[in-house]
Amino acid sequence: MSTAPQFPNETLVEIFEHAAKADLVALCVTSRLIGGLATRLLYRTIDLRSLAQLAALVDTIAPAECVLCRHVRRFGLGRRVPRSQQVGNWLAALLPRFHLLDALRLHHHAPDFDESVCFGNLRLFGGIAGLTNSTSLPRFLNRHPTLRCLTLRKGLVGQPPWDAVLHLPNLCEYFGDSSFLPSLDEASVRGVRDLEVSTAGGETDWEAVLARFGPLDYVGAEFVHDIAATLALVARICPQVKEVGVSSRSQAAELRDVANALKGYRALRSLAWDISSTCVGGADDLDTIQTLAAACPTLRRVTGRDRVWDMEWQMTEKDWSRKE
Questions:
Q1: Which residue from 21, 141, 167, 247 has the least number of CB within 10 angstroms?
Q2: pTM for this predicted structure
Q3: pLDDT, tens digit, for every residue of 52-76?
Q4: Domain-wise residue ranges, the chain
Q5: Is 245 exposed, middle or buried (0-12, 13-18, 19+ CB in 10 A)?
Q6: What are the angstrom distances between the C-alpha of 224 and each of 157, 200, 233, 273?
């Protein structure tokens, strides 16, 4: 590392980007130059997975003169960080200081966003739309027309729908509950290419949902009642879609019905399902995969997941092989 200062800072940053977190921590105490570059990368992405980690971050950047906040670009809270008033207070104190944030993932947290919280280049948001932020969250989202990826989940089953209108003209991806889709105005849905909708807590009019969007590259359907019928409907409305993912917790799907549904696709390359291992024959059975591929000749990848198995089949040259 004695020759490091001979390299341009941009080159050192590119090298350090491949370092693990522990290595960046070690680099921070080597020299002022190296430490400054490593610190910038160390705080670029903050992904907190426990309450203790969140508390430590709050203590670290609590001083008003702390400049570490200006390095943060992506901030996320893991599922193991509990929802509490204390966590909400910490988020209220932290978020306004991350002026250059471009990705914010809050998972199951639903903070009440202050009107002062605004980021100039926020491109990704994921979080819960609950009763506590039903007013502030739509306003927060509308302050960020730069958003390209939006994930919204309900805080409670049976929660009443929003009466707000979201204007996100740069939106490309939406993942979340179907109940929020009517809130997206026409400018918001026009550019969406990846759409994954959860029907948890109620049925979804898939025909009405898909009719609002333009050409889609990916369609995901979570917790549908009838997998084969949903696949057939997507094929009828979006025959050129390239990737489809479906999941169901209530009903098995017959292999012949799924194969018949796949015949309607013209460019499908990837199929994924998350269903009982008794569905669609056996997902670890090559004959099952070949039956699906025969129905849809463009298919190149099939992925299946549930509590028992997790496997992926890929077309390599002219044969299907199971990816280990």
A1: 21
A2: 0.85
A3: 999 999 998 888 777 888 889 999 9
A4: 1-42, 44-192, 215-324
A5: middle
A6: 16, 8, 12, 11
